[in-house]
Design goal:
Rossmann fold, Alpha-Beta Plaits, 2 domains, four-stranded antiparallel sheet, globular
Length: 299
């Protein structure tokens, strides 16, 4: 288990991370989110042992993170961190060796991953010759070549099309099933909802939202109803508990303050003809993020 306990980090007088705590258990995919400058990268660097906390502690399976455990960690940075003049094979040999692997197991693992990500033909190509999307695949392969117990993914889907997002998602889920602890960060909330169950959202180094996504959505209470048919926006807005009605290309999105309002909207819909859709959804994680972080900024 990864345990982050009450960590604080200063840069001079600036407090980048403020009394942050969370746990990631084996097999869990945990999301650490926030706007730019919220403290995510500093937190990642402290977990990696690249920065020291001013206060608090970070342990992996009960041990402080130092060079005795870093071989069990994989890290995909948001920025490109590949040696672009090397071939894919030489990059793998370099990185795998740093992680304590021998040449035979590095090449075996590399061939498996290149095939899985459909880039076997690039094994002997220089990284600078690859497209942005294929460089991202190689960077991901380097992060998982050692089958890490703890994997940190910072914007892993950058530069990927939907097909390759699915390839990454499948591999991340496989690593989770094998017991890897995964910390995931992205500005795309729909990506977070693909497979994360537990999140912390940072603002100015502090956790402003934390817990299981299902509980956060339940506690948020606000919901959305999607309607197709002949309805009147003004009539919908007069229903108690309706917060907003947004006309889209072929449907209306009705924002309501709680589950109790569904019945009132449905009673209205029953009086109308040509209704082909009435669908209720919880608020999206993106909607909750914008609302909660916006509220925190205003305080």
């Amino acid at each position: 288990m990864l345990k982050v306990e009450n960590i604080t980090k200063y840069y001079g007088d600036f407090k980048a991370v403020d009394n942050l705590s969370f746990e990631v258990k084996p097999g869990e995919i945990f999301a650490l989110l926030g706007v730019n400058g919220a403290g995510k990268t500093t937190t990642f660097r402290m977990i990696m042992g690249l920065l020291e906390c001013n206060k608090g502690s970070i342990t992996l399976d009960g041990k402080p993170i130092d060079y005795s455990v870093t071989d069990d960690i994989g890290f995909l940075t948001e920025e490109r961190s590949l040696l672009t003049k090397l071939t894919v094979k030489d990059q793998a040999l370099y990185y795998g060796t740093l992680k304590g692997m021998n040449k035979k197991e590095i090449l075996k693992r590399l061939d498996e991953l290149l095939e899985r990500f459909e880039v076997s033909e690039y094994k002997n190509r220089k990284i600078k010759e690859l497209s942005k999307g294929n460089q991202q695949k190689i960077q991901f392969i380097m992060a998982i070549i050692n089958k890490p117990r703890l994997l940190i993914l910072d914007e892993p889907f950058s530069g990927l099309d939907p097909f390759n997002v699915e390839l990454f998602k499948k591999e991340i889920l496989e690593l989770s099933k094998s017991g890897s602890m995964i910390i995931f960060s992205s500005h795309r909330m729909e990506h977070v909802e693909l497979f994360c169950k537990k999140i912390v959202i940072l603002l100015k180094g502090q956790a402003v939202i934390e817990g299981y996504i299902k509980d956060i959505k339940r506690d948020y209470r606000k919901m959305n109803i999607f309607i197709k048919g002949d309805v009147d926006q003004d009539e919908l807005l007069r229903i108690g508990g309706v917060l907003d009605v947004i006309e889209k290309s072929d449907e209306y999105e009705v924002k309501i303050e709680s589950e109790q309002v569904i019945e009132y909207v449905f009673d209205y819909i029953k009086t109308k003809k040509n209704i082909t859709k009435f669908m209720v959804e919880e608020a999206s994680l993106n909607e909750i993020f914008v609302s909660k972080v916006g509220e925190a900024y205003e305080k």
